[in-house]
Amino acid sequence: MKISLINGSQKSKESNSGLILDRLKRFINKDHEIKNHKLGVKGFPEETLRKICSGDVIVLAFPLYVDSIPTNLLKLLIELEKHLTKEPTEDIVIYTIINNGFYEGKQTHIAFEIIENWCERSGIKFGGGIGQGAGETIGFVKNIPFAGFIFYNLDRSLKLLAQKIETKEPCNVTYLSPLLPRFLCRIMAHHFFWYPLARKNKLEKEDLVRKPV
After folding, report:
1. Which one-letter DSSP state was computed for residue 40?
2. How many CA atoms lie within 13 A of 109 on its CB side?
3. Cα angle 60-62-64, degrees, rounded to a multiple of 5
4. What is the average per-residue pLDDT within 190-211?
5. pLDDT at residue number 13
6. Radius of gyration over alpha carbons of the chain, in Å?
7. How far apart, in whole angstroms, are the C-alpha atoms of residue 23 and residue 177?
8. Residue 17, Cβ neighbours under 10 Å: how many?
9. Residue 91: is it exposed, middle or buried by C-beta count within 10 angstroms (0-12/13-18/19+)?
10. Beta bridge pairs of residue 22
11. pLDDT, greater one: 7 or 14
12. Residue 65 has what DSSP assignment?
């Protein structure tokens, strides 16, 4: 079986989508032909698009952008649709993993509807997937095994998703939040993301809450 893992993050370096795909790959039998594709902002050449469309399974992983999909991924879907409609196939199954900065994974439901509608338009099967809340936390705790308490439910869901991928069976969309109280996630976001980002841009903590004039 040919499986394409597509990291739809716009980040040029390490991304949370990439970390999730790396974890998923560990649960997929090595007998399958697995190809990793990093989308970035430039997209894929024609040869890569043809290889993706000639495979059996596509796994999309990307961050939520304003309750929707990133623009680079939208461009990719348009290009893939051209290939898929030119040579129609119902054999490809697409699974999707979306992470977002909100605490609730349910926040990704609109993006899932977009992917499902695109699958119907392109003539391929929507296989379901995982919507993960507090996605930025993944990068902060990347050195802690996913099976630890914070993302135990994500780890378990990735194992189940890998089983579905290997049989090309559809599954429901699973919405997850980290096994961490909301207030702790907020503290982590402040001290490990927003405050360091503010200092990097020569701002103080107070500047983050200052009301516009």
Report:
1. T
2. 6
3. 135
4. 69
5. 82
6. 18
7. 17
8. 28
9. exposed
10. none
11. 7
12. B
> Is residue 60 within 8 Å of residue 6, measured between CB atoms?
yes
Other C-beta atoms closer than 10 Å to the C-beta of 59 total: 26
Query: Structure tokens of 54?
Result: 């000639």
Q: Encode 120-143: b = buried (16+ Cβ within 10 Å), e = exposed.
A: eebebbbbbbbbbbbbbbbebbee
> What's the mean pLDDT in 143-166?
86
Q: Which two tokens stand for residue 66?
A: 């304003």
Query: Cβ(39)–Cβ(8) under 8 Å?
Result: yes
The number of helix segments (H) and strand segments (E) in the chain equals: 9, 6
Q: Over the stretch 155-199, which tens digit does the pLDDT of each residue have?
A: 999 999 999 999 999 999 999 988 777 767 676 666 666 666 677
CB 41 within 8 A of CB 6: no
Q: What strands, in cross-sheet order, belong to the sheet with 173-176? A: 33-38, 2-7, 57-63, 93-99, 125-132, 173-176
- At residue 138 the predicted structure's pLDDT band, cuts being 50, 70 and 90, is confident
3-state secondary structure of 95: strand
| The residue to which tokens 């507090």 are assigned | 134
Q: What is the mean pLDDT of the chain?
A: 87
Say how many residues make up the chain. Answer: 213
